Amino acid sequence: MTKTVDPLSDFDDLRRVAIEYSQQASGEIWTDYNIHDPGVTLLEQTCFALSQIAYQVGLPTRDLLTNPRGHFCAQDLALFKPRKVLSTNPVTRDDLAAWFCACPQIESVAIAPAGSDRPNHYDITVVPSDDTCTPEHIRDVFETARPLCTALGRVALATPIDVVLSGEVEIGSETLPETVAAALYHKIAHILTGSNQMEHPALRADVWSNPMRLLAPAQSHGQVSLDLSKHLAEIRSLPGIRDIADLSLQPTTLGNIPTSDTPIYYHIVLPDTDEELNAEPGLRLLLNGAPSNLSATRLKEEFMRVSAETIAEASHHIDKLDWDVMRPGRNRKFTHAHVDSLLPQLFRAQGYRMYDPHTLVAEYRGAIDDVLRDMVDELNALPHTFAASAHLSQGDPALHRLRVDLLDYLIALQGVEMPTTRHSGLHTYRTTRARHRFDIEWRLEYLFALPGLHRGRATGPGPNAPGGFLAELALLCDLGLSRTGDMTQPLRDFGLTLDDTAEFVDAPDAEELLLIPAHSPFDMLVPEVEDAALLSKDDLAQYSPFLNDLTLNPAMLAHLTKSDRFAISPHIGGRWLILFDPGTDAALRQIGIGETKGEALEIVTRLRATWRHINRASETAHLVEHIVHLESSTTDPNVADLILPGWTARCQMESFRRYVETRVLDLAPAHVHVRVHWLSFEQMQTFESNLAAESTDGWNGQMLKHLDSLVQTGSF
Fold first, then answer.
1. pLDDT exceeding 90 applies to what percent of the chain?
2. pLDDT at position 206
3. Each residue of 495-553: pLDDT tens digit?
4. Is residue 699 scored above 70 in pLDDT?
5. From CA 567, how far away is CA 577, in angstroms rounded?
6. How far apart are CA 124 and CA 200, in angstroms?
7. CB under 8 Å to 538, separation ≥6 — which residues?
8. Mean pLDDT of the chain
9. Do the beta carbons of residue 196 and residue 310 sit within 8 Å?
10. What is the DSSP secondary-structure string of 355-389?
């Protein structure tokens, strides 16, 4: 009976057993009498690491992820915060506020839900910065960054109420009075428009975490003065201000206050003349108890300077990158140093001349020198190896895997994981060489697109952009995007139609195919050409006699994309036959003749490229958001339909469909249900006709009823 081994629970047990194993393996050659033995030191480090791992594994997950105070410190654990990892967060009102505040025509904005009677609608109130801000401009800005499955409700421009500043402020002698007054007017102007509580106005991170750049609550229309007492602390922190005796704001004219239904904001007015600026009860700046005589012209100049300085320091350019993938490194050059420079003086060539034969020293030194030379060559090749280019040589598979792993790591640094594409059908139309190049191009494009995708995450299609959700889905799934929903156009461009009942035309009985035996069977095969030109519509019809009126079914369309469906063969007079294999044990069909082998090869490569282009160009996605196409309370605003063709070679593959649907689940916001429809050709024609009719006559819900019927019957 085998003796039960006690578990190795601590460092001492691990060290004891490891020493015994070492002694058994080395016999009498090695002993552990010396505790400073390097082998014992390494062994103890290994045992300590193993005991620590065993100890930590037994702890609760909460203790492993928190510090002694119970706080989650992602940076200390080399982890990403949930907001970075979960990149499918919906666009919030704070994000919209940041987007609106980046527009120079908008000073601040208030965004609120429209109410239960209009779900997923936003009411927006804007404080304009100039007269160019119009409701149409606000709608365009909203459509550019519209959250998925949302719509715009009421749009209102706040009406300004002019107010004047009065009070006494004690200033220091180190600053000009007009400079202090300009900073004071500028700060109060920000307070009145609701943007004063931002540490850095319109900075994206601050708007996310503390969205205070919003419209201040409307003051009571009956009051005469506005209370600034709760803002005295931040006003007192302005440079040059020693103390504030009294500050108040008063409307210039009480009769111009609009009705309570109209949003308002208070706009501070700068005095036009020196008399207005220094008149009672205006603003008085006291220097050592004596009032300073202010210049209205100098005050306006200083106000413009302070405003420009604030804009320059705000760093509110929201359209720039919020982060960098990697900081640019120095361009390092490595030179090969001889082995003599790395050895002590005793072991250099001069020290061996009197003791050792030259042959042994030369072999030893030459071997080390070769190793150093190889290291230098590899280091100097790093800039070329890791260059952001997909057109480098793909001949070395180890180098290719290294570049792919590096790009995956850079993408993972942003909290995003590249999907697994093996057995997904993503590379159906690509050769092996093209697939390897695509692996690099695909990752580079995604890496460079991540700043824009993160900035507009989960946004819906706009007038000039597909939106963050749809753009990321199309990039990861290698799909095109359709703005108009006209997805059968690539077929119509070549005069093709699809019919489930279509079949290949049988060869005429009188046709005799005379094949001259080739010198090698491989002469009939046509190599893949990646950049072959496409055939015209007439040429495609000429070389497709196997189609009846250019009508084919989805299986035939997928059949024509395979590389072995077209071949060539020698013919009489040095010409070459162009052959088509219809499959299903049918005989080869002659579809053309080339005067030379090169001409026949070109026709086949262009024919193959054309059929693949038709399939690839037809694979476009169109997103239908219910809230946009039907304004009705009975429609679920959180539902969207993703329309995809189901008749192309790749879209007929179950693996590719599962791959796309998985990406939809990963990228769609949690509150949005995206239904994926793989429509047949007839269903797609019905969808396109309904969409065109609604675009012309208005949204009547016919298209959504058609999609709902497909969901209920499961016929897609």
1. 16
2. 40
3. 999 998 888 887 765 455 555 565 666 777 888 887 889 999 999 999 999 899 999 99
4. no
5. 8
6. 23
7. none
8. 77
9. no
10. TS-HHHHHHHHHHHHHHHHHHHHHHHTHHHHT-S-
Which phi and psi angles does 264 have, rounded to 5°?
A: -130, 165
Tokens of 659: 């791959």
SS3 215: coil
With a cut of 60, say whether residue 49 has pLDDT above it. yes
Query: Cβ of 544: how many Cβ atoms within 10 Å?
Result: 21
Written as six digits, the tokens of 137 are 């401009």
The residues facing 163 across adjacent strands are 251, 268
Is residue 512 within 8 Å of residue 588, measured between CB atoms? Answer: no
Residues 314, 200 contacting (CB under 8 angstroms): yes
At 95, phi and psi to the nearest 5? -65, -40
Cα 684 from Cα 663, distance rounded (Å):
22
**Could you give the angle at the alpha carbon of 234 between the alpha carbons of 230 and 236, nearest 5°?**
100
User: How, if at all, do strands 480-481 and 290-291 pair?
Assistant: unpaired
**Distance separating alpha carbons of residues 278 and 391, to the nearest angstrom:** 71
Identify whether the C-beta of residue 443 lies closer than 8 Å to the C-beta of residue 407.
yes
Structure tokens at 556: 């035939």
Cβ atoms within 10 Å, residue 74: 14
Q: Which helix (H) or strand (E) holds 291?
A: strand 290-291
The more confident residue out of 206 and 311 is 311
Nearest to 245 by CA among 192, 189, 286, 290: 286
Tokens of 237: 């922190």
pTM above 0.85, yes or no: no
